[in-house]
Write a structure and sequence with these properties.
312 residues, alpha+beta, Jelly Rolls, six-stranded mixed sheet, five-stranded mixed sheet, 13 helices, elongated
């Protein structure tokens, strides 16, 4: 398959989607969720509700088949009527987020929720390009696939089939990818960054080239040719959508790859230098120190020490 920068970045940030629990509600109800340092998703299986996100102007209405992605560290409320005083979510789940909380008779509304775990070091590469709230409505073109995924999630939870936990994890991951695809295909302006660059038909082929061979000494002329643009026009457009010039993007991506290798692998510096397009260990070490602020050897030692320390 062709190089896929989208998959490269999701793998780099170790994005892992987890289904935690949900809500069943009937009658009048309202729940308040505290701000958390996680990307959260919320899928409406049955009924409808109102959602209000802290700091966002006005509430949004959601119906069965709608899916939310909340990437900001903000509290939010789900309710049949936002005028009702909300119940704190902690009172309903009492520390067990894997269960379904029930309000009233639970006959009118069903919601499934979860969150996306990201690598604490590199996760900002994804989190920082997402808006506070993404809503994919049931009537959107991308919603057909999301509805199928949602139906499968409900089926797996209800039937307790062999391998259900693994199936739920895979389905949740697919849902997250589909939400990001829907966001990428939206007509609304995207935040400056790599995700917007992937949505640009002229710039996306250039990202695929750089990701396919990050160690190559790419020149602006050949990258501009891939974008079917003049060099000057290409550089301006790339910086407009990606937020940085093309060769700066390439340098940043190389440094991300170097960070991952230093954290996870016992790769010799000479091998790392070669894979990233540097002529020597000192060249890659100097580039890494300028970009990250610490020498590769010290970075690796700190990463290993952190990994070996027992969790509190």
């Amino acid at each position: 398959m062709a190089t896929d920068p989208f998959s490269d970045i999701l793998n780099l940030v170790s994005a892992e989607t987890v289904v935690t629990g949900g809500i069943t509600a009937g009658g009048q109800w309202s729940i308040h969720f505290p701000a958390e340092d996680k990307i959260k998703f919320c899928a409406i299986v049955k009924g409808d509700c109102w959602a209000r996100l802290e700091g966002k102007d006005g509430p949004v209405h959601a119906e069965a088949g709608d899916v939310f992605l909340l990437s900001a560290k903000r509290s939010f409320t789900l309710a049949s009527d936002l005028a009702i005083t909300p119940v704190p979510a902690a009172n309903l789940f009492t520390g067990d987020l894997s269960k379904f909380a029930k309000l009233g008779d639970g006959q009118d509304f069903v919601q499934i929720g979860g969150h996306v775990q990201l690598d604490p070091t590199s996760g900002g590469l994804l989190a920082n390009v997402l808006p506070p709230l993404i809503q994919v409505r049931a009537g959107a073109p991308q919603a057909t696939v999301l509805r199928w995924i949602l139906d499968q999630l409900v089926h797996e939870r209800a039937e307790e089939l062999p391998g259900a936990n693994l199936a739920l994890a895979q389905l949740a991951q697919l849902m997250f990818i589909q939400i990001l695809r829907a966001h990428l295909g939206t007509s609304s302006p995207l935040a400056t960054g790599w995700l917007r660059a992937l949505g640009d038909k002229r710039i996306a082929p250039v990202l695929r080239l750089m990701h396919s061979n990050p160690g190559r000494s790419w020149h602006l002329e050949e990258l501009a040719k891939a974008a079917l643009m003049s060099r000057t026009t290409f550089v301006v457009r790339f910086k407009t959508v990606a937020g940085v010039p093309p060769l700066t993007y390439l340098l940043n991506w190389r440094m991300r790859l170097a960070e991952r290798a230093l954290r996870a692998e016992d790769v010799p510096m000479s091998t790392l230098a070669l894979s990233l397009g540097y002529a020597s260990e000192s060249a890659v070490s100097n580039a890494f120190k300028r970009a990250i602020g610490i020498a590769p050897k010290r970075y690796r030692e700190a990463a290993r020490k952190h990994h070996q320390e027992p969790a509190p």
